[in-house]
Design brief:
The complex is a heterodimer of chains A (about 210) and B (about 170).
Chain A: H1 2-17, E1 21-23, E2 38-45, H2 56-67, E3 77-80, E4 83-86, E5 89-98, E6 102-109, H3 136-139, H4 149-161, E7 187-189, H5 191-204, H6 206-212
Antiparallel strand pairs in A: 1-7, 2-6, 3-4, 4-5, 5-6
Chain B: H1 2-23, E1 44-45, E2 50-55, E3 58-63, H2 65-71, E4 74-78, E5 85-86, E6 91-97, E7 100-105, E8 110-115, H3 118-121, H4 125-128, E9 137-141, H5 153-165
Antiparallel strand pairs in B: 1-2, 2-3, 3-9, 4-6, 5-8, 6-7, 8-9
Classes of the chains: A alpha+beta (about 210), B alpha+beta (about 170).
Amino acid sequence: MERMSQALSWVLLVLRDQGPVIRRFSGGGTVIVDKDTVFVTFICNKDAIPGLQPYPRPIMSWNSQIYEHVFDKACNFQLRENDYVFGNHKFGGNAQSITKRRWIHHTSFLWDYKIENMAYLKLPTRAPEYRLARSHTEFICRLKDYLARSEFIDKTISALGSHFSMEHVELEPSQQSLAADFVPSSREITMQEMEEALAELTSEEPAAYSLSK
Amino acid sequence: MALRMWASSTANALRISCSAAKSAGLSPSFSITRCFSSVLDGLKYAPSHEWVKHDGGIAVVGITDHAQDHLGEVVFVDLPEAGGSVSQGSSFGAVESVKATSDINSPVSGEIIEVNTKLTETPGLVNSSPYDDGWMIKVKPSKPSELDSLMGSKEYTKFCEEEDAAH
């Protein structure tokens, strides 16, 4: 019942504010992203990292060691369960997609955030143990409070340079490099789909809907 | 780096694979420093860690204890519908653990005749009962000889040991 009510509250908020919702193909929970979010994604062949098994924990553990060279020891950076934290405050969430020959490891770094946007994120049914039922504002922290954006980017690139040869490329995809029949599996959820979800939720839980109106 | 990852993998093995062994009626045999995932006789295994049981012209497919142990807690299983077809070595669905989606590859080619709908409501069956209640699809094999190319239990056990030792 509680899980359904949470889902219903979330759908109602999104429909009210008409914010874009993207369903990504990788795992992980719901995140709020904005113009300040820093994304770092590794797209690797299965054998790209010598000695690394293509499973969630090994990949995450390897990835966290990259960032150990980015943050000062005083920040108390660590990988805690599945999150990147300073102490016990989360500033980065991870998601992965693993296929037979490749894997993706993706981190969304919370550079800054608006408190009102955190209203979209209720206490999740499946929360990390270290969260200890804290509200979002007590649980997360802003990466910008720890170092400058340019410093974070430069140090991350430098840390990567000890593992890979680095080359800067432009992000705009070349049309010729995409297969003609390529269909992205990540996509934006339409408002119609959100309204259909609302109809389904309210038909299963009419009492919760009447209370939340 | 390798030692830390091995320790993490071992901690997961002690927590999860021993319970899977119990559910299969096996007595877990492990030392304080190492625990092996369970491997059942009578099944065939793919190098991508799926198992297949061929019985009465029907192939039942799932992922192994080794796979569920390394993937972690499964929260969603994306399976195709019955009536579709699968090809050996190709993806037919995905398992989503807490932070990762992982492809599931079919060890045989053929027509999907049944899908385990229990996994929709209880995806954790993949963790708790990977060889039994956590089965994923049933296939009518179009090329039964493909089973000959798969590993038996002893071969797969050795394969897993070598894979874990190499990392």
